[in-house]
Amino acid sequence: DAKTTQPPSMDCAEGRAANLPCNHSTISGNEYVYWYRQIHSQGPQYIIHGLKNNETNEMASLIITEDRKSSTLILPHATLRDTAVYYCIVRGNQGGKLIFGQGTELSVKP
Amino acid sequence: NAGVTQTPKFQVLKTGQSMTLQCAQDMNHNSMYWYRQDPGMGLRLIYYSASEGTTDKGEVPNGYNVSRLNKREFSLRLESAAPSQTSVYFCASTGTIDGWGYTFGSGTRLTVV
User: Fold this and answer.
1) A99 and B59: CB-CB below 8 Å?
2) Which of B108, B98, B14, B89 is CA-nearest to residue B45?
């Protein structure tokens, strides 16, 4: 599974969009990008995933660059409850393990 | 409510003691996982069970054993606890081969003194 690089921390003002970047320059053609988040020592929670097209659901949007070497998770209107550690994970879709990196600690401030 | 249940939620052990962390899921998921999370760190995979009757080592298996008792239950055993095993332990399960269907338990906070 390809390695990912994320900034260790970011701040965002409440009500503004939070844009969380992730680099995955060694991603291979059959590997997906998954995003999970962990709110204050709770178990991680799935957010969104994608292969090459941009994806949107009720929680967030995922923008993947054309060369697939990086992606951005967008929380369109961040709230205080979005304060969490966000994990970007790259993995093939053929089973196996979900391996977490260090993630980005997002602080949403009033 | 459907989900992953871990017991106990908190535990203090003395060095050298043994204990078993229990995990049960009621979603009919095939695969189950045990992770540990140390302060300020991401989750690290200890062991996993892709299906009933199979178990495999993850990133940090030393000092642990697991049992997939049936499809619902996956236990983690510390035979001789060490202070380095002080951590929060999370159990997870998924019913798909994709990476998006993971459901995590609320964790077991273990302190070894």
Assistant:
1) yes
2) B89
Q: Is A15 left (phi over 0), alpha (psi -120 to 50) or beta?
A: left
- Alpha carbon distance A46, B55 (integer Å): 24
Residues of A in contact with B90 (CB under 8 A): 43-44
What pLDDT does A101 receive?
87
Residue A40 near chain B (CB below 8 Å):
no
In the predicted structure, residue A85 carries a pLDDT above the cut 80: yes
**With a cut of 50, which residues of chain B have pLDDT below it?**
none
CA A90 to chain centre: 10
pLDDT score at A93:
65
Whether residue A92 has pLDDT greater than 90: no
Q: Which of residues 43-102 of B touch A (CB under 8 A)?
A: 43-45, 48, 50, 58-59, 88, 90, 92, 97-102
For residue A46, the chain B residues in CB contact (below 8 A) are 100-102
Taking only the tens place, the pLDDT of each residue in A34-72 is 999 999 879 999 999 999 989 999 999 999 999 999 999
Render pLDDT for A8-39 as a digit per residue (tens, 0 to 9). Answer: 999 999 999 999 999 999 998 888 999 999 99
Q: Name the residue among B45, B48, B105 with its Cβ closest to that of A43.
A: B105
Distance from CA of residue A87 to its chain's centroid? Answer: 5
| CA atoms of B64 and B84, how far apart (whole Å) | 12
